[in-house]
Amino acid sequence: MNKPFLGSPQNTIAVLQKYNFTFQKKFGQNFLIDTHVLDKIINSAEITKDDMVLEIGPGIGTMTQYLACAARQVIAVEIDKALIPILEDTLSAYDNVTVINDDVLKTDITALAVEHNGGKPLKVVANLPYYITTPIIMGLFESHVPIESITVMVQKEVADRMQVGPGTKDYGALSLAVQYYAKPYIVANVPPNCFMPRPNVGSAVIRLTRHKEAPVTVEDETLMFKIIRASFNQRRKTLANGLNNSPEINLPKELITEAIEELGKGAGIRGETLTLQEFATLSNIISGKL
Ligand code: SAM
Which end of the chain is less congested by CB atoms within 10 angstroms, N or C? Predict the structure, then answer.
């Protein structure tokens, strides 16, 4: 198997020129051109020769080459059909890579895990297209695709939001959703000069290790996430007002007031101060009253 060769700017430029490739902004195309960052991603994903890796958006195949060397099998889903002939060329020396030309948001990943990994949990590794970071990550968690970990490059600000707890301005529905499903860990901050073209924002690699058991017990997951969304939709309002005004939650005002009291919080409490455990308890109190 060949060694990865695309990590340098010169080799990336040579491939782009050979195929006369033009970057598509609408697909969030910022290709990695830094071998240290690539090594860091691969190492922090802890890939072994037993693993099946799903790569989202292989681009010209830079990280795919590293993944192919480390994993048993790589499935790479790329939306841009102009990249498919390039991938056939750059990945020709690797016999354990399958490229699928599709939109990852429409791909049946559970079926891929069954077909290529006997239904065992897979690892997701990607330099994500930033315009769809949240739908991709939430889609992977909510669909209950068997996943061990997700190691991805995202916008720095989004990585921060996934990691924080109550009491900070970045804390929100994304923090709670990610932390309900996984343990987040920021592996590295990555500056714009590690990409071609350079993005206008800072980036970070984050590893999300899926919990084996949920960290809180929730009777009705859907209700808890409705409560979380309602609490952060109207950040500056009290929790009671946020829940009363939410079109997603149709509950009598008295029931909401009673539930917040039972949680042991005062009437003026704001949703943004609650922990995941407190949202789970509040959701269970409300479920018990329905
Ligand atoms: N992995 C490459 C690298 O690191 O150099 C490219 C990363 S680039 C940030 C994001 C890639 O995702 C692009 O190749 C882009 O075409 C692809 N992409 C964008 N939207 C996608 C979608 N909905 N489904 C699959 N791939 C997508």
Answer: C
pLDDT of residue 235: 77
Distance in Å, CA 79 to ligand 1 centroid? 7
**Residue 273 located in a structural domain:** yes
Give yes or no for residue 4 CB within 6 A of ligand 1: no
Q: Is residue 4 part of a domain?
A: no
Q: How far is the CA of 77 from the centre of ligand 1 (A)?
A: 8
Residues 230 and 184 in one domain: no
Which residue owns the Cα nearest ligand 1 atom 20? 27
Q: How many CA atoms lie within 13 A of 52 on its CB side?
A: 19
Reduce the DSSP state of residue 217 to 3 states and report it: coil
Predicted TM-score of the model (pTM):
0.94
Q: Within this chain, do residues 255 and 147 fall inside the same structural domain, yes or no?
A: no
pLDDT in the model for residue 201: 97
Find the 284 Cα to ligand 1 centroid distance in Å. Answer: 40
Q: Is residue 216 part of a domain?
A: no
The per-residue pLDDT for 1 is 62
78 lines ligand 1 (CB under 6 A): yes
Which structural domain, as residue segments, surrounds residue 255?
221-289
Q: Which residue has the tokens 């996934």?
A: 162
